[in-house]
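Feature request, filed as a ticket because there's no other form

It would be nice if the structure record came with a short human-readable summary line next to the tokens. Right now we just get the raw output. Example of a typical job, pasted below so the devs can see what we mean:
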Amino acid sequence: MIPTPNLDHLSPGDYEHVYEPAEDTFLLLDALEKDAEFLRNEIKPCICLEIGSGTGCVSTFLGKILGDGTALLICTDINPYASAITNKTGYHNSIQLDSITTNLVNGLLPRLYHSIDILCFNPPYVVTTSDDLYLSKSILEKAWAGGIDGREIIDKMLPLVDKLLSDKGVFYLLLINENKPNEVCEIMKNNYHLQSEVLLSRLAGREKQLILKFWRNTR
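Raw output as currently delivered:
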């Protein structure tokens, strides 16, 4: 069993500026751990990318899974405070993370076109109004407010997945039932020929969270 990354370097004040790991974070960690042997022995990644890294907990955990330190672990977050904390979390756990402050993957394409072997995204998925999403002045609210069906940010990311994933690449996406995961799977299959499965699911209070795994037909 791989231990959860140590976050002792973070203070309660840090969580006023960055999303604190919660049930959704830990579900994504469990999904990556479930696929650990597959990721190490079949994917053998060169470049990994996490969108919306927050504290850096997920990418640090992924670095621990991969173990040998040969993969480049890139993280993006729109929140500059999160980018700084991500780097600190990696350092505190002896994992090298390269954190970039940007919106989704702005600035990474076309350079990383079809280059990402492991892609992770725990998106802002909570169902809100569009106003809550786009008019909010709170950087922390942007970490969870997802707009209509909780899908407005997710739907912006979906076309980029096809551009980013390598031929052997795999994409892990956290959703809740309200995000209409079956519809997401159909979009990815029909528009981008990506296969999918529900890797893990769990109830968190009244919220059903699940991890979708996507990959190309070529595998």
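Something like this underneath would help us a lot:
DSSP finds seven helices and seven strands in the chain.
The chain has one domain: 25-123+157-216.
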